[in-house]
Design goal:
224 residues; alpha+beta; two-stranded antiparallel sheet; 21% helix; elongated
């Protein structure tokens, strides 16, 4: 009897095992996949600053000075605080009621700086053999670049462009002479003020392009 019972049990196990295995495989195929990490968890953690949001702009040094008065007063005593100014700065120099004249050493060109009413000008002209003017190019001075510690250069504005004027003032010799870059050749009023350069000589410039001298309007939100 026991032998017959064992044979029956063994037969049931042999036939039932494949059915159990198939059922397990079928059930496994219907199982839901493990949840994946959401897109939010896969992104790196970013810190958001309110002052970096779109539309946020610099409030200006006057607003900063309300809470940082000591720092502002200290800065205002430096030469850098006077790095860029309006032409009225030229009123500090005597003698501009009459033109100061400089001749180019390598060309038959003469440059002058002078005052007319409340405005200041620079001009370039060429005389002929009889001393008569062949041409004269006069430009109104729009800005003064430099604190005056070593000197300053005049800038002229034509439309949306800024250019260096031919004459600069040198404090050590107390005289007007050719601006940097004009010694070797006559550049007239065509040397552009580059955007990547003016950042070191002004407060908040607005160059429209890094090269070429083109600026937005106004060219400076703050002079120094």
């Amino acid at each position: 009897m026991r032998s017959a019972f064992r044979q029956v049990v063994t037969s049931l196990v042999v036939f039932a095992f494949p059915l159990i295995a198939l059922s397990a495989l079928a059930a496994g195929g219907q199982q839901e996949p493990l949840p994946e990490h959401s897109a939010a968890h896969s992104k790196p953690f970013l810190v958001e600053f309110r002052n970096a949001a779109p539309g946020v702009a610099y409030v200006g040094s006057k607003a900063c000075a309300e809470c940082h008065g000591d720092i502002n007063q200290s800065f205002m005593k430096t030469d850098m605080s006077r790095a860029m100014s309006l032409p009225s700065k030229l009123k500090e120099l005597p003698g501009l009621d009459h033109p100061a004249t400089v001749k180019h050493p390598k060309a038959n060109r003469y440059y002058q700086v002078y005052r007319r009413g409340a405005d200041f000008f620079q001009s370039e002209y060429e005389p002929d053999a009889d001393g008569k003017e062949v041409f004269r190019d006069e430009q109104k001075i729009s800005y003064i670049m430099g604190s005056g510690a070593n000197g300053f250069t005049c800038l002229v504005r034509r439309g949306d462009y800024l250019f260096e004027a031919p004459l600069s003032y040198y404090s050590r010799t107390k005289e007007w002479n050719l601006s940097p870059g004009y010694e070797s050749t006559d550049l007239s009023f065509s040397r552009p003020i580059e955007g990547d350069c003016i950042f070191c000589h002004s407060g908040r410039p607005q160059p429209a392009e890094e090269r070429g001298g083109k600026f937005k309007s106004p060219p400076f939100l703050e002079l120094s």
